[in-house]
Amino acid sequence: MERREVVAAAVVAVSAATAVAVLVRQWQRSSERRRRRARSFLRRLAAQCATPVPMLQDMAKEMAIHMGTSAAVVSNVKTLPTGDEEGVYYGLNLSETNFQMWRAQLGGKRDGVVKQECETVPIPKNLMSASIEGLFECIAKELAKFVSTEKDSFSTISTGVEGEGEKRLGFTYSFHHADYRSESSWNAQIRWKTLSDDDAVGKDLVDKMNKALQRHAVPMKVSSIVHDSVGDLAGDRYYNGDVVAAIILGGGTNAAYVEHQHVEQREPKSREKIIGVELGSFSYSRLPITEFDADIQAESSNPSDQIFEKFVSATYLGEIVRRVLLKMAKETALFGDYIPPKLKIPYVLSSPDMAAMHQDSSDDRDVVGEKLKEIFEIADSTPIVREIVADACDIIVERGARIAAAAMVGILQKQGRFGSNKQTSVVTVDGGVYQHYRLFRNYLNSCVNEIQGSECSDNLHIQSTNGGSGIGAVFLAAAAAAASQVENLLHN
Questions:
Q1: CB 144 within 8 A of CB 102
Q2: Contact, 254 vs 280, CB < 8 A?
Q3: Keywords in UniProt for this one (predicted)?
Q4: Whether pLDDT at 278 is above 60
Q5: pLDDT tens, position by position, 316-367
Q6: Hey, where are the domains in the chain?
Q7: Beta bridge partners of 257
């Protein structure tokens, strides 16, 4: 009897082990099928996102043509800093939610920036729905306080220009296009056209700002209100005379560059024009648009606008990847037999989080696993799944970086910086997508060489910006003051 029981128990144990083995094999086959489907999905996505060099070369040519349209305007900034400027100057940088007041003491070529200070002021909620005049009143009031502390920490006071004690105030603004969906009523009034040399709206804004300064007894004068790409260009030119263009690749996408012009010798004007380019609005018929891009376009507040920006800016890169992962979850069961609910939430994946996953170099992609759990509540992910997620990020980011590289080459072609021109050209890039995203930066830099060839690229240097548009506003003020002094001397 006992022997039969032992045999029966053994049979049961073997049967159980066999059943477990069958289940394991089924799970392994299921996982392998999911992996193959996911890899097949990524191959199709990579083909749709392909950016071959001939296409990018053609795109660069189209970009150069694009800059001859209304998307490129001559800035009302007449001169850029040289590094010779001396004295104390002020700058203002206005963003969607705050403004920064800058002050710097410049010591010329020998001492450079001796000292600088910055104070950030949040814009009160009630001013979000106020008029532009209300905003300027707030700025002037805060500037009056800021200026009153100058003698406490700065030993040198800049020479007046138009009147005794009057200084120039540089004014830059930093709105990317997505901000125009916000609740503020005044940011729509400060748009790209305020860069224009002959724009009536821009001149009216300058006049309103100067009147607000007068009412608060601030001894300053604004000459122009310009986009932050012009501020970046000024800031970088102060340190390096070879800088010919500044590009912003962050939440928004814009650029400014220098173009030479013929000027009669008797005219005391600069031989350079500063051109602003709204890169984000560029459209090219052969852009590799996927269903994910098309859906974002259709659902956005500006479905037929800012097409280029939606390929390269931090506002959209993470969202494109989220949509890719959601479709993979549905079609390939990448994360198992259920769709993670948080994967369905638009814009839940930020570009910095996507960058962290993409650049995870650990053996098992541990950072990817942490981010999947933190953002999408996907608790258990295998190393294979994490690798697939990182590859999805790579496809979208490489496409964006190569498209951005073509735009950069287009600007340089418009300037005539290639071919027989052997001058050194420095392009500076601002914005988190370039400065804080190593793989994006590497893809962009290498693609410029692919498009133009290594010989042409030997004289081209791509660098991160030196200081940004805030301190750039200070340098614009200093350059404007110096140019005004020269002009006054020539006319007297």
A1: no
A2: yes
A3: ATP-binding, Glycolysis, Kinase, Membrane, Nucleotide-binding, Transferase, Transmembrane, Transmembrane helix
A4: yes
A5: 999 999 999 999 999 999 998 889 999 999 999 999 999 999 999 999 999 9
A6: 51-75+241-465, 81-240+467-487
A7: 245, 275
99: DSSP letter: E
Q: Are the CB atoms for 411 and 245 separated by under 8 Å?
A: yes
Is residue 479 classed as helix, strand or coil in its secondary structure?
helix
Strands 167-174 and 86-95: parallel
* Second CATH level (architecture) for the domain 51-75+241-465: 3-Layer(aba) Sandwich (3.40)
Distances (CA, A) of 481 to 88, 145, 202, 216: 11, 22, 20, 22
Q: How far apart are CA 103 and CA 108, in angstroms?
A: 16
Token look-up 């709105």 returns 175
What is the reported pTM?
Answer: 0.85
Over the chain, what is the mean pLDDT? Answer: 83
Question: What whole-number distance in Å separates Cα of residue 402 and Cα of residue 442?
Answer: 10
Q: What is the mean pLDDT of residues 390-419?
A: 93
Q: Are strands 243-249 and 425-430 parallel, antiparallel or unpaired?
A: parallel
User: By the 8 A CB rule, do 143 and 213 touch?
Assistant: yes
The answer to whether 313 and 280 have CB atoms below 8 angstroms apart is yes
Nearest-5° Cα angle at 397, 392 to 401: 155
- Among 252, 291, 269, 238, residue whose Cα is nearest residue 426: 238
Q: What is the DSSP string of 393-436?
A: HHHHHHHHHHHHHHHHHHHHHHHT-STT----EEEEEESHHHHS
CA distance 232 to 470: 8
Amino acid making up residue 10: A
Report how far residue 187's alpha carbon sits from residue 408's, in angstroms, rounded to the nearest whole number.
Answer: 28
Position 288 pLDDT exceeds 70? yes
Q: How far is CA 11 from CA 2, 28, 173, in A?
A: 14, 25, 79
Domain 81-240+467-487 CATH superfamily: ATPase, nucleotide binding domain (3.30.420.40)
* H or E element in which residue 271 lies: none
In 145-269, where do the E strands start and end? 167-174, 220-227, 243-249, 253-260
Q: Are strands 167-174 and 220-227 parallel, antiparallel or unpaired?
A: parallel
| Alpha-carbon gap, residue 378 to 391, rounded angstroms | 18
pLDDT for res 163: 43
Nearest to 63 by CA among 369, 464, 409, 375: 409
Contact between residue 225 and residue 197 where contact means Cβ atoms under 8 Å apart: no
Each residue's pLDDT tens digit, 102-135: 999 999 999 999 999 999 999 988 887 778 888 9
Q: How far apart are CA 205 and CA 211, in angstroms?
A: 10
pLDDT of residue 129: 73
